[in-house]
Sequence to fold (179 residues):
Amino acid sequence: RALFEPMRLLEVRGRGRGEVFTLFDVDEIKRFPLKGAALMQATYATEIILRGSVVGQAEPELFELYQTLLIALLSQVNTSLLNQFELAFLDLHGQTLNLECEDEANQAIHPDNLYKFHPQLGLRLASSPTKALGIAITGALLCALRQPDSLTPDLRVELRHVLDQMLAQHLNGKTLFAR
Fold:
């Protein structure tokens, strides 16, 4: 029986200490029979988890998000779903985009402004003294992310660029091959 194929929710039991465990039982809980673009999106999400998470650190919120993504991909292929997963992954790992106000002066986000995001500094106006640091993000994108399903094609391209940069920072140079 091909139990170890991708996109299955498994219950795994083992014994051991430290990093060495002996696997003694595996039960399938749920199967996600994804095909085509949905399978590629799920593979990419899986790789983000594998490369971007700390080994041995329990992250139940992350796996709830992942399962929610897989369930959603069963019914529809939608890049917005994957983008929302990426943003939530980054948020869980300390890279939170403030969609309401910039973090330095606590001023409301304005769609005509340009902002910079840095994991340690947060979101700041690009004209602030720390303008050299961070990823450029338009205020229009930040405002549109409040309703991510309504992004225009141009804002989707910008979001892809921003997410790629944020993930690259988080992964410290590790390559995502499923991209």
In short: The longest helix spans residues 153-171. DSSP finds five helices and five strands in the chain. Residues 7 and 32 are 5 Å apart (CA to CA). The first strand starts at residue 8 and ends at 17.
